[in-house]
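Reopening this one. Same input as before:
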Amino acid sequence: MEQTPSDPLDTALSGPQAAAELAAQMAAGGPPLATGTADKPFANMLCFSVYAAQLAFNRLYKQLLAPHGLTYLQYLVLVALAQAEDRTVGELGEVLFLESNTLTPLLKRMEAAGLVVRRRDAEDERVVRVALAPAGAVVVAQVECVPLDVLSALDMPLDDLQQMKAAIDRLGSELRKSTA
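Same output, byte for byte:
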């Protein structure tokens, strides 16, 4: 059966196929993509849903990390260093998806706060290595409860959260591929 512009889009279509189908429907006089309402203008925008969820996460993490004097990015650096004690700035950038021009000032502030130690690599002085300072290791131990605190704040089944994480990981991977 042939779809008309008013037919719902086949949800099994991949992104490129769905985009082509939606473009054809719009060309045939169908509704624009970002159709919403006055109270929900972004109802059909996945990017806004992810953005709004990230804002909510930021508020929650700010509340949980403020007593430890940490920002969310500082927390992530500490977690990454706790998993692999000695990393290069490049390695940290890869796991955090950050460029060195964003990461370097952050690491300098963390070093000034006594949380990390930065040093030149013995074999290649162009490479900067980062490790937890003793005070950073103390803070890592203090924030070990944060993932459980976040989980406690979410009144959702664990299975739903695991599926959502897998879907968001895949979404991020696809977005990174499309911008490479």
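So the earlier flakiness isn't reproducible anymore. For the record, The mean pLDDT is 89.
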